[in-house]
Amino acid sequence: MSSADPQVETVIDLDAIAHNVRILAEHAGDAAVMVVVKADGYNHGAVRVARAALAAGAAELGVTTIAEALRLRAAGIDAPILSWLNTSDADYAAAIAADIEIGVSSVAHLCAVARAARASGIVATVTLKVDTGLNRNGISDTEYPRVLALLRDLVDERVVRLRAIFSHLACADEPQHPANDRQRATFLEAIATAKEYGLQPELVHLANSAATLTRPDLAFDMVRPGISVYGLSPVPGISDFGLRPAMTFRARVALVKQVAAGEGVSYGHEWIAPRATTVALIPAGYADGVFRPLGGRLAVRIGDTLYPGVGRVCMDQLVVDLGENPAEVREGDTAVLFGPGEPHPQRWADLLGTIHYEIVCSPRGRVVRRYVGDVAQHEGGL
Ligand SMILES: *Cc1c(COP(=O)(O)O)cnc(C)c1O
Fold first, then answer.
1. Whose CA is nearest to atom 1 of ligand 1?
2. What are the structural domains, with CATH classification, of the chain?
3. For each of the chain's 382 residues, which pLDDT tens digit applies?
């Protein structure tokens, strides 16, 4: 790294994103691929990930909020975008004007979309999100007939167009869980019920990453992978499916110093040097996304060696023990907190009792994001 490099950064490998999209497309068979870039592309940068994924063969993009969808449009991305979680007072007029497909989960949502469509004089593109057993977002059983009746009228009046019907799985990361088959059956019933109202969606979709990779019978017309696009296995421990993690979280060593035997290191002196040793200061702490409970438990890779973190993780920094420092680690060297090799985000997840989704969403604040890969070269700029 040069002196101009940031102290702490995430490096996003867009070639890995492209590689992962191609793997997912193979598993999807005839189904199209909608790449989920919610939460700023799982903290990898939604715009750049979206461009790389579309270039690699993804057909559509999925996000949570209208604001997320509008940011993609503002960046010049004209692929179909679905936004599926908005309150009834969301800016549906802006979504309609930007040709964003709107996922609705209630009569109230649909009414709000219809109001905005009437006011703007543009036909809104609507997708029904049906709850098939997750019991979270999605139209409930009890409200479904009322949504369909209202939608029928709105379609007849040419206020809205029905694009798709979709649903989300509760237990896809356990491929053989009986809930998957139950949700599939309920989903098919919901599609059949819509047809009774004369409502024929252009396509239907159900599968997240786990289902895309393990349940080809749930692919329908399109799959909606998220985490696997970023190279993390949705069923860790079973297979990595040849996916390549796209994010490396790293920092530059800020200081190397000697600590005498018996000296305490970092707040509270929770670690006492058992011998005279050398320590390295890593300028990344919990404000940057290094979870504080990792203190004394994580390892950091410098060169080819994993060094144990010692003492508490602080807001801005943590300390690793280099021992006698045979590799001659120096200020400015790159320390990998997690990435495609070791330590893997799954390692942090195991240490923290969470999932790797939360790990890659964590780097923030001072962390600077940088893109690498041939795809990044071709695109140029930021
Ligand atoms: C987040 C999300 C996905 C992607 O899930 P992964 O497990 O990351 O593949 C797909 N569909 C919906 C509705 C989601 O909210």
1. 226
2. 31-230 (3.20.20.10), 247-378 (2.40.37.10)
3. 455 689 999 999 999 999 999 999 999 999 999 999 999 999 999 999 999 999 999 999 999 999 999 999 999 999 999 999 999 999 999 999 999 999 999 999 999 999 999 999 999 999 999 999 999 999 999 999 999 999 999 999 999 999 999 999 999 999 999 999 999 999 999 999 999 999 999 999 999 999 999 999 999 999 999 999 999 999 988 899 999 999 999 999 999 999 999 999 999 999 999 999 999 999 999 999 999 999 999 999 999 999 999 999 999 999 999 999 999 999 999 999 999 999 999 999 999 999 999 999 999 999 999 999 987 776 654 4
Q: State yes or no: is 257 an active-site residue.
A: no
Residue 103 beta carbon below 6 angstroms from any ligand 1 atom = no
Pocket test for ligand 1, best of 20, 24, 36, 104 (most atoms within 8 A of CB): 36
β-sheet bridge partners, residue 176: none
Q: What is the pTM of this model?
A: 0.96
**What's the 169 CA to ligand 1 centre distance in angstroms?**
9
